[in-house]
Amino acid sequence: MANDPVKSLKIEAGNKVRLRSFDTDDTFGWHKESALAELEQVKVQLEVVQQRLFGEEQRSLLLVLQAMDAAGKDGTIRSIFSGMNPAGVVVSNFGVPSEEESAHDYLWRAHAHTPAKGRIGVFNRSYYEDLLVVRVKGFAPRPVWSKRFEHINAFEQMLVDEGTTVVKIFLNVSKEVQRQRLQERLDDPEKRWKFRKGDLDDRKLWPDYTRAYEDVLSRTSRADAPWYVVPADHNWVRNLVVAKVLLHHLERMKPRLPESEPGLEGLVVE
Ligand code: ADP
Questions:
Q1: pLDDT averaged over the chain?
Q2: pTM of the predicted model, to two decimals?
Q3: Residue nearest to atom 12 of ligand 1 (CA)
Q4: Domains in the chain and their CATH numbers?
């Protein structure tokens, strides 16, 4: 494929990322209708390979989703995982740490939710917040957060070494589309519950978040645990790209169903 987003959106290890060089409204020359149809096909393929991973019960996959507010983390998860075997998918949300969580190191709560063998774990936000909101809002001083790039690289390497495929996705939304979506949340009573006044504070800190994200993407993308920067201004593009990235990594794992007992073929149940 000429413009394969799975290849073109991957951050190679050691690359210095500048987010302004990534289009937030890229469509890869796709058309909405055919992209929606393709998503359905990709989802069928995802279901098959997920079922194998689940049956094999030897390895796992961790999908980390990070984004500014209203980029569509929840919508992406709903769209992509809706057809899968729910027993094999565990979604974990990471919000403001509880008292108990704050009393531990920042990886403690994340580690408790890494996926078991056979499972896909989805992190809706993650330990990367400890290099993002924590840095931008000054919740920890630089000497503390700046060591976390290395901790996280080592933590993810450990997960990889122990059989977890780690895939990380940054949903890249533009400031203008975020404005529209936040306004929509305010105006629509069905969506208003999602709006927090704090979202506006974060929006004001957009340049600081951009810098923090650029450092994360530049310093924690590695061959074994890559970041993808996914254009998120169009939901239908975002969903298809994330589904393709996930399928690529699941297929590369080549999960195999366990051998059935010998002598079953041709057996008739009476
Ligand atoms: P979301 O915005 O992902 O839909 P919430 O509305 O529950 O979910 O927001 C989660 C909030 O928790 C975000 O504002 C995020 O910045 C914050 N958060 C996540 N992790 C941390 C952390 N380690 N320290 C402080 N705040 C955090």
A1: 97
A2: 0.97
A3: 95
A4: 5-253 (3.40.50.300)
